[in-house]
Specification:
30% of the residues lie in helices and 9% in strands. It is of the alpha+beta class. Strand 11 and strand 12 form a beta hairpin. Helix 4 crosses helix 9 and helix 8 packs antiparallel against helix 9. Its cofactor is Zn(2+); Cu(2+).
Length: 509
């Protein structure tokens, strides 16, 4: 979670993580954050200290509180379009040596990729799985044990680019360690069951996309998405040219024709980490398990979400609602996350949209501490992010819709998302992607067909309007007739003899 240059006892002791721009050259303290070339400056970290929700009660015990202050209190602040832990890269949406060329990458439906594009994406994932991350290392012990006092060695290790993506997710959902013999406690999840669910996963994907762009030396590389809202019980991307078909002999393993059958998962031994107070390291475990629609004990998760569910959730007006948790009702976030009916109504028995897609996979991809080990995670989350971006576009929410305080720990608007470095707040991801974050989605959202209730309501209203119009029309005609008759009445009324009568009378005389 930290740049290699900061994973030293000296850096930890100083609380400062402001690497230079040219690490291969003799360290030059005045060049921190590319200061000498006008890129950035080493500044104090700002961490959110507003109150959090009642789910977490162990304040003081968890390294992730007020992230990242337990580890570092100074970081690079980059000028203009410069970006990154040493201001050596460009802000999303910009590229080039001087970060002066605009670039918006386009995330496409994986089903629309040509055969060679599919193969290129799979090869890129496999390369990321097998290439040590060039910039970041992970801590494998809690802060109090990060440095061995006897040897002054740190417990940071190398990890591959893809496994770094898996590890950050695991670290964000892991329990709070209470001490040896006391185990670990839940009540924390820095990336789920709260408003940060969407902002956290957005940045998580952006980080992988950027790492893969660097790996491929292709700034235009974009992650594709899986439209999982197809209903039915078939995983349409579980084929050997995409995410791997089912193994013919073992129904919860992948076909040997897929490269993903050779992938080995990390962060499998969660019971050990939680009881021993260790943290997942880069040691690999068993194969990816997946048995789509195969959970016989939960028929509800044997089907994928429908497109109508997505279209309904896009109509939920509020981003999130108190208590900003997995029991929030009429909350767009909780609906897309999948703890509500697609229309927004909270229902504890429901699993919909994102959660349903995870649980449908029924294996590695359905267990929160492990799920990114299955590469379907990437595609499932790009689609979830596409729905989020469409909601932002349609509803154009004020930033104040995102709660400033009293959300679960890690989920307040100004909290730095755990465990990303350099610090990035939830609010920085609560913006439309094409205009602010350098990517867009190639996606056409259908309009929602009307439900039977809506059709009946519209028919009743139309009938009422019609009846009202008919009555109004009829009374208008009657009134007009009356008015016409009135106009024909003689001015002097019946008490005066008519002209003819008068004439008759005169003649008689
Ligand atoms: O990886 C995940 C797995 C999940 C399972 C549920 C659930 O609703 O039970 N939710 C999940 C979220 C994940 O990110």
């Amino acid at each position: 979670q930290f740049p290699r240059q900061c994973a030293t006892p000296e850096a930890l002791a100083s609380g400062e993580c402001c690497p230079g721009l040219f690490p291969q050259q003799t360290p030059n303290p005045s060049d921190q954050c590319g200061f000498t070339v006008g890129r950035g400056l080493c500044v104090p970290v700002i961490a959110d200290s507003r109150p959090h929700g009642p789910q977490y009660t162990l304040d003081g015990l968890d390294d992730r509180e007020q992230w990242p202050l337990r580890f570092f209190n100074r970081t690079c602040l980059c000028n203009g379009r410069f970006y990154g832990y040493n201001c050596g890269s460009c802000r999303p949406g910009w590229t080039g040596d001087n970060c002066d060329q605009p670039l918006i990458v386009v995330r496409k439906n994986i089903q629309d990729l040509r055969a060679e594009e599919r193969q290129r994406f799979i090869n890129a994932l496999d390369l990321a799985k097998n290439t040590i991350h060039p910039d970041y290392v992970i801590g494998t012990r809690h802060y109090s044990e990060l440095i061995n006092p006897a040897t002054n060695a740190t417990n940071f290790v190398n990890i591959s680019i893809y496994d770094f993506f898996v590890w950050t997710h695991y670290y964000s959902v892991s329990k709070t360690f209470l001490g040896l013999g006391q185990g670990s406690a839940g009540g924390v999840d820095f990336s789920h069951e709260g408003p940060a669910f969407l902002t956290w996963h957005r940045f998580h994907l952006m980080q992988l996309e950027r790492d893969m762009q660097n790996l491929l030396q292709d700034a235009s590389f974009a992650l594709p998405y899986w439209n999982f809202a197809i209903g039915g019980n078939e995983c349409d991307i579980c084929t050997d040219d995409l995410m791997g078909a089912r193994n013919n002999f073992e129904q919860n393993l992948l076909s040997p024709n897929s490269v993903f059958s050779r992938w080995r998962v990390v962060c499998e031994n969660v019971e050990d980490y939680d009881s021993l107070g260790t943290i997942c390291n880069s040691t690999t475990g068993g194969p990816i398990r997946r048995n789509p629609a195969g959970n016989v004990d939960r028929p509800m998760v044997q089907r994928l979400p429908e497109m109508e569910d997505v279209l309904l959730c896009l109509e939920v007006n509020l981003f999130d609602t108190p208590p900003f948790f997995s029991n929030s009702s009429e909350s767009f976030r909780n609906t897309l996350e999948g703890y509500s009916e697609p229309s927004g109504l909270y229902n504890p028995t429901v699993r919909s949209l994102h959660n349903l897609a995870h649980l449908f996979l029924n294996g590695t991809g359905g267990q929160t501490h492990l799920s990114p080990n299955d590469p379907i995670f990437v595609l499932l989350h790009t689609f979830t992010d596409a729905v989020f971006d469409e909601w932002l576009k349609r509803h154009n929410p004020d930033p104040s819709q995102y709660p400033l305080e009293n959300a679960p720990i890690g989920h307040n608007r100004q909290y730095n998302m755990v465990p990303f470095w350099p610090p990035v707040t939830n609010s920085e991801m609560f913006v439309t992607a094409p205009e602010n974050l350098g990517y867009s989605y190639d996606i056409q959202w259908p309009s929602r067909p009307l439900s039977n209730t809506e059709i009946i309501t519209i028919a009743v209203i139309a009938a009422l309007v019609l009846v009202t119009l008919i009555f109004a029309g009829a009374s208008c005609v009657v009134r007009r007739k009356n008015k016409k008759n009135e106009a024909l009445q003689p001015l002097l009324g019946e008490s005066y003899p008519r002209y003819a009568e008068e004439k008759e009378n005169t003649q008689e005389v």
